[in-house]
Amino acid sequence: LSLVFLKHLFVAFPLFLLLLSFQRSTVVFSGYCSRILRAQSNRKEVNNEFRLRVEGDPESYQPGSTYRVSLTASSPSYFRGFTLIATREGAEGDRDEDYAGNFQIIDEEETQFMTNCPPAVTESTPRRRTSIQVFWTAPPSGTGCVLLKASIVQKRIIYFQDEGALTKRMCEKDSTDRPLLDCCACGTAKYRVTFYGNWSEKIHPKDYPRRANHWSALIGASHSKNYVLWEYGGTASEGVKQVAELGSPVKMEEEIRQKGDDVLTVIKMKAQWPAWQPLNVRAAPSAEFSVDRTRHLMSFLTMMGPSPDWNVGLSAEDLCTKECGWAQKVVQDLIPWDAGTDGGVSYESPNKPTLPQDKIRPLTSLDHPQSPFYDPEGGAITPVARVMVERIARKGEQCNIVPDNVDDIVADIAQEEKEEDDTPETCIYSNWSPWSACSSATCEKGKRMRQRMLKAQLDLSVPCPHTQDFEPCMGPGCSDEDASTCMMSEWITWSPCSASCGTGTRSRERYVKQFPDDGSVCTLPTEETENCVVNEDCLPSSCLVTEWAEWDVCSATCGLGMKRRERMVKMPPADGSICGAEVLEVEKCMMPECHTIPCLLTPWSEWSDCSVTCGKGLRTRQRILKSPAELGECTEELEQVEKCMLPECPIDCSLSEWTEWSECNKSCGKGHTIRTRIVKLEPQFGGDPCSQTVQRKKCKVRRCTRGQGNSEEKRRRKEQREKQRGKQGRYLLCCRMRPWSSWTECTKLCGGGIQERLMSIKQKFKTVQLSSCKDRKEIRACNVHPC
Predict the structure, then answer these.
(1) What is the pTM (predicted TM-score) of this model?
(2) Which of 532, 652, 655, 769 could bond to 688 as cystine, CB 3.0-4.6 Å?
(3) d(CA 483, CA 478)
(4) What is the DSSP string of 218-235?
(5) Tens digit of pLDDT for each residue in 333-356?
(6) Which among 302, 228, 232 has a CA at the least distance from the CA of 263?
(7) b/e per residue, 509-524, with b = 16+ CB within 10 A?
């Protein structure tokens, strides 16, 4: 197949039509694909002008995982067509099983599957482009090494390359890299997980949400291999969805607790406002959890807020080592991942549910130009967080003999969970103060207290809970060590008082969540009873009142205000007197300093329609300030404007001015005269067509006398015939010409090119020597529409 033919063919047809011309016989697609792989003749080295890249530049692939593949041209180069195919290394392409993995189309306007070779991807339309992207799902385990290969059509030249920038070799990831599924460690281990938020405006400046940035409450668990909280390629559960979209861990915790024996410890941390935290242990939130031989995996997630459905976390991190021990320390940098439940592309995109749900996948720097992590070069996303998992103790007989330190032997790792905290994320508190001394100096049960300060209330419609916390305690020297090996639930709410008037009793219960490891009986109480007083006296003049209602919202949004609460009279005094019990209480309340409350804004609205009906225009979106006006001026942006592009506007035909009318074609009698104009611009994009370019009208110079008109007309015609005969006679006398050839292809696809055609000499007479006997050439304009 000649290179000249290839050049002409690729001007008008996509690459797959070229490949089809190698053989005209009808074949199955595998045979056709094999010819694509063998079509390497007349190739030219490309010197890295073009590049085939798998995002992240991995050297190996994980079976079943999906990767983003891009084909790019370095500036100022471009390409018109391409072919992309994936095969097993060493395969000839003659069999269906020679092709590895599956491609997925991202943009149907740019790419499509090849008609005669479905495993391959080619261009949708032959036009200039500098890059294309597709997804490629790796083949199943056991496939071995894979070659991703590309061919390029640039201008009228085809580029192939077996090695280098247009071929990517990837081998299956070694099975030794996979998490251990069966643990051989002995005893149990206790860990502390610490979360460091590195998501800041300095590191991720694009569209950074200065006021509202935060991490949601973290939720996770230590669990067995039979339970999966979340994983890449999986579908988000309802619990994961609520964390990802709302930052709410309630449903996720419910799902975890329903797994029973597959879960050992529920892991919980408070929300972080703001998102960035300095890298030191005191400032970063942490939680403790335990693992054992069957529940040796650890998973968690937390939402980046605000975001459509973006999170960070670990999935099934194995803390059991191949040496039958427990990992000493695990540190991982985290990049965000998409839960597949919302289609937004930026931090504050309007809600756009994804139906049906997409698979969970890591975010990439090539997802969307409006993404805050977008990088046209496809580089790696800078981590937004770091997690550190440290072993703090071990318990029970260990399989590995040499301990890491003395504390590993003697530390007690009672399997207890951190206290639950249902604080709304819109309430921002200071850290808790240290616990006070116990109110009991003996071994009788007492109480101790700690306090915190409410620093900001971001949503006034959501009440913020208490700023004081109490817990039971006993005096110095009283040991509750033996009982601490029981894991108990929280106390259930107190029952109503047994008396409707005067002194009675009430009780509450809890249950054992986990019995001691040694099988002994749990001695902690599961029921508690105490005295209660409904009314201090039961005289005929006393009345029965309800419990106090919750305190109303503080009257001030910042600074000093007042709050109140009420109760109702359930039963008036029996003697008919007025009830003397207080039914209203008022007290002062202190809100944060006014200047500390940030702007509270609604989500962005949908983008408006484009300001034009065709061509380039603008569109806008707005959000509304929800914070009260008395809090001061909010400097946040309330309206955004961006460019929009609709189909090109119609362009009407453009004509020159009319020429002057010609002379009458008759010297006497009735005749006609004409005038013309030329087309300056052809109509485009549905514009008005061109009107007439020639006009004719009648003319009459003077009346002809008898016979004069006929003789004059004959004379004029005779002169025209002789003139025409003299003009062509030179060609007829000296040579015989071939017919005009076909017009050549236009030199440009758009913007105005040139076509030519040729009349060549067929026979030249030697007896006549005239310089005018030579080849003739005509030229005309073509493809005058704009690029």
Answers:
(1) 0.39
(2) 652
(3) 12
(4) EEEEEE-TT--S--TTS-
(5) 888 999 999 988 888 888 888 889
(6) 228
(7) eeeeebebeeeeebee
